[in-house]
Amino acid sequence: MSKKNIVQLNNQxxxxxxxxxxxxxxxxxxxHRLMGIIMLFVILLFILPTFNLVESYRSIQSNKKEIAxxxxxxxxxxxxxxxxxxxxxxxxxxTYIEKYARAKYYLSKDGExxxxxxxxxxx
Length: 123
Description:
By secondary structure, the chain is an all-alpha fold. The protein is built from 2 helices and no strands. The protein has 2 domains: 12-89; 91-123, no CATH class. The chain crosses the membrane at residues 34-54. InterPro entries: DivIC, FtsL/DivIC.
């Protein structure tokens, strides 16, 4: 086998073509760099609002839990208030006051004997 030597011509046309190729590669590199910077900027623009959106969602969920808890407390306090109002209304009656004092505080009139019966305590 014989070796063949390939020699590239080094004339003005080849030099111009090589320079043109280097220029096109440099332009492509600049475009790629610019597109990379633009993509990074776009990603940052989407990430920041996403964090705010997630934080808002967490805040809304915690507010919903707190609302549910406060509604339970409100119902319990409403029932307690209704019972207290009924007791206050009942305590305006003198006979009820006497029964209540005898049952709850074991008060008696002179000469009376008190016998405790469970379940008869006025509420």
